[in-house]
Amino acid sequence: MVTITLRKPKPEEFELLADFQVVMAKETEEKILDPETVQKGVKHMMDNPSLGFYLVADVDGEPAGMSGVTYEWSDWRNGLFWWIQDVYVIKKFRNKGVWRAIYQKIRDDAKATEGVAGVRLYHAPENHTARSVYLKVGMEDCDYKLMELDFAST
């Protein structure tokens, strides 16, 4: 049995979190991200907690996975939604409860935080593995489709 410990990342771990995200994007969406841009983005959010936060899962003292959470204001609910972002678990630690532990911590902290209306995440439509994992922890499909105008990619 593995011991999973959840924690906020150390400031010097921004490169590790960025590396996780670069690998995750390639693995799940076949997207090649610029590591330097991702490092700057991770460091920026770590330096600006009003944007969100990261959570690292260690297994027996070794970083095994991570997720980020960003905030979205909902005037309909007069509260914040916590958006789970950048879910990644190193392959050798998958199916060992790492994602479930990360999710439960985020869910429980969101429920305990005044003014939080709920938790959301998105996944690529063809990523059926991710969808089944999210359903297993209790998330549900919602009525919304995500759309974007991505200035960084144009």
TrEMBL record:
What PROSITE patterns does the annotation carry? GNAT
Alphabetized GO MF terms: acyltransferase activity, transferring groups other than amino-acyl groups
- Entry coiled-coil feature ranges: none
Q: Which InterPro entries match?
A: Acyl_CoA_acyltransferase (IPR016181), GNAT_dom (IPR000182)
Q: Which residues form the N-acetyltransferase domain?
A: 4-154
Family annotation (CDD domains): NAT_SF
Q: What is this protein called?
A: N-acetyltransferase domain-containing protein
